[in-house]
Prior knowledge:
This protein is α+β, with helices and mostly antiparallel strands. About 25% of the residues lie in helices and about 35% in strands.
Amino acid sequence: xxxxxxxxxxxxxxxxxxxxxxxxxxxxxxxxxxxxxxxxxxxxxxxxxxxxxxxxxxxxxxxxxxxxxxxxxxxxxxxxxxxxxxxxxxxxxxxxxxxxxxxxxxxxxxxxxxxxxxxxxxxxxxxxxxxxxxxxxxxxxxx
Length: 143
């Protein structure tokens, strides 16, 4: 089973700044897109989680910029669950140029699991299927 999920994305013009470079704030949005895609690919989507009364708020997000993405580029965003204990989850991301493979950015987000009233939830006990799926993908590191 492949633990790294790849999400392909071409930037939109509105995401650029005056230098035709993707504005730095968009990388965090791209991480979210890759995370949502990851969850869909492993079989337990965010929409399903919410329909079952689970939320996954962001506790932290960070991005280290290596080389600019420009309008017209296509990037591959690799995502992995680097840590998971049923209460918290960390995801790492690598943004690379599709054509050259050049590293453009790397980062991570950390999340916890809550019910709809923001009370912490231990996934192993309350949602064992989700726990098993995410556990099976956890432990990979991109950096």
